[in-house]
Write a structure and sequence with these properties.
The chain has six helices and no strands. With about 170 residues, it is mostly helical.
Length: about 170
């Protein structure tokens, strides 16, 4: 009968992984859930404030016909619907991935925050309602808070530990 030679040791010890994320990562995840909720609220309010959007478009360019304004509103609703649902999904996906310590998720979250910053600048420049602008600012501020928490020293140590090789 064949028996393997005994070994001197069992190899290097497996690095310990944290059982749960540190407080800054947990807080960033809670902020991401809040971002998803605010995005959902913004999406719902956007659907119910079509009249004020028509007024804002007309005030931005009084030479537009009723048909052009209605086309603009329809286009805005389709775009808002697509990006609204996409935004909610991205908030939730990034919360899940960052909570799990995925290094790529922290980078993707930062890139998405940069895109949201450009979107906020764009929202300020185009026709908008006051409520939609306030919600956009709140969502941006929540994103800023999450990004700050994801990149602090304690969070960085967590992401490094979670990406360390496992034996």
């Amino acid at each position: 009968m064949y028996q393997p030679y005994p070994t001197a040791g069992q190899g290097p010890p497996a690095p310990m992984q944290p059982s749960e994320p540190p407080k800054p990562v947990q807080n960033a995840v809670y902020l991401m859930y809040a971002g998803a909720a605010l995005s959902a609220i913004s999406f719902i309010i956007g659907l119910f404030t079509v009249g004020s959007l028509k007024t804002a478009i007309h005030q931005a360019d009084p030479s537009l016909t009723t048909s052009q304004i209605n086309s603009g509103v329809t286009f805005a609703l389709v775009i808002a619907g697509f990006f609204g649902l996409l935004g909610i999904g991205l908030w939730l996906w990034m919360a899940w991935a960052n909570k799990g310590g995925k290094k790529w998720a922290r980078i993707v979250s930062t890139v998405l925050f940069g895109i949201d910053t450009l979107g906020l600048i764009s929202a300020i420049a185009r026709a908008h309602t006051v409520l939609s602008l306030v919600l956009s600012l709140l969502i941006w501020a929540v994103g800023l808070g999450a990004i700050i928490m994801l990149w602090n020293r304690e969070s960085s140590a967590y992401f490094e530990a979670m990406s360390a090789p496992r034996y």
